Amino acid sequence: MALKTTTLQSGTIGVIEVKGSLVGGEETDELNNAVADFVEQGNKKLIIDLAKVDYLNSTAIGVLVKAHTTYKKHQGLVKLCGINKNINNIFVITKLTLVFEVAETREEAVQALSQD
User: Fold this and answer.
1) Which among 30, 96, 82, 94 has a CA at the least distance from the CA of 54?
2) pTM recorded for the entire structure
3) Burial code of 79-103, b = ≥16 C-beta within 10 A, e = fewer?
4) Listed residue (21, 24, 17, 15) closest to 3, CA to CA
5) Closest CA to 34 of 11, 54, 9, 52
6) Distance between CA atoms of 31 and 5, rounded to whole angstroms?
7) What is the dotted CATH code of the domain comprising 4-115?
8) Measuring CA to CA, how many Å separate 59 from each of 18, 19, 31?
9) Tens digit of each residue's pLDDT (9 = 90 or more) over 22-60
10) How many whole angstroms from its chain centre is CA 103?
11) Which of 3, 44, 50, 46 is nearest to 22 (CA)?
């Protein structure tokens, strides 16, 4: 399954919806470019919705960490949402749950970032 990203604007919060498998190559380049576009626009709050992602590998984790680092450098915040059980297990094992803020749903993520 190919990756599809959709960029939306929910007030001042950017949202990237990712679909498919994140395994490197074009898929992660597309996500990386979408994040870079939001940063260039001066966006400070980004949600990456992974609800429709069925698989990711270390390359994809690297892209997510890069997004987090880039936003933090620009005094911004990245929040992940919709992580399935298998991906959550990867985040727990790698201790990325200590790095990323994670919400169950996109609505919860928007609400949390709206309060910041």
Assistant:
1) 82
2) 0.91
3) bbbbbeeebeebbeeeebeebbbbb
4) 21
5) 9
6) 7
7) 3.30.750.24
8) 15, 16, 12
9) 888 887 898 999 999 999 988 999 999 999 998 999 999
10) 11
11) 3
Residue where the block lists tokens 């950017």:
14
Closest-CA residue to 97 (of 83, 115, 112, 114): 83
- 72: amino acid identity, one letter: K
pLDDT of 64 > 50? The answer is: yes
* Edge-to-edge strand list for the sheet holding 101-103: 4-10, 13-22, 45-56, 77-81, 101-103
